[in-house]
Amino acid sequence: MASPCTAEDPMDPVVQGTINVLTAAKKFRVRRVVRTSSISAMVPNPGWPENKVFDESSWTDLEYCKSRQKWYPVSKTLAEKAAWEFAEKNGLDVVAINPATCLGQLLQPGLNASCAVLQQLLQGSTDTQEYHWLGAVHVKVSKLSPEFPVHRFTGETQPGLVACKDAAKKLIDLGLIFTPVEDAVRDTVDSLKAKGYLKQQKN
């Protein structure tokens, strides 16, 4: 289900759509449902203990997001909480995957939240995205796309962020091969240009 990014977009269809899928899964006795959620259901969470690595027990602070009009994480959190509640009440085996920044060729007609962040960075945005921890600000972005006015952040923009050395170890052990970040950024930039979401800045 697509999640709203503005206050004008209704939240109910996102939650109800999740419940509808799980209801159908239960009806047809699906053994396990793997649900693609988002890191936005886990962060921002400013109240998380300092120096503790984030894990699946973290939930996005809804009031924090609402006060800053961050509606995308609000919708993702409400939908995931509804999924877990349904699973517990109905004995359904549900697994949630919470990816962070999703880059690459745009497969949909619109601009998704992850690529919108990269688009904004390439256009010179100075929004620090505090407490979001998208992992999108890579040091090589400006080198890969020198024609864009990428702002270089000199100070700490992610308070409380703790590095996790083996964050992807479980996935790597399962055989997942990651796309190099340089390739992901380059593919995204090419796609943004092709779809008219990104234009080279004039000198």
TrEMBL record:
Ranges where the NAD-dependent epimerase/dehydratase domain occurs: 11-108
Residues in coiled coil: none
The keyword Lipid metabolism is assigned to this record: no
Molecular function GO terms recorded: oxidoreductase activity, acting on the CH-OH group of donors, NAD or NADP as acceptor
Domain of life: Eukaryota
Alphabetically ordered keywords of this record: NADP, Oxidoreductase
InterPro entries (UniProt xref): Epimerase_deHydtase (IPR001509), NAD(P)-bd_dom_sf (IPR036291), NAD(P)_dehydrat-like (IPR050425)
Gene3D superfamilies the record matches: NAD(P)-binding Rossmann-like Domain
SUPFAM superfamilies from the UniProt entry: NAD(P)-binding Rossmann-fold domains
Protein name: NAD-dependent epimerase/dehydratase domain-containing protein
Origin species: Anisodus tanguticus
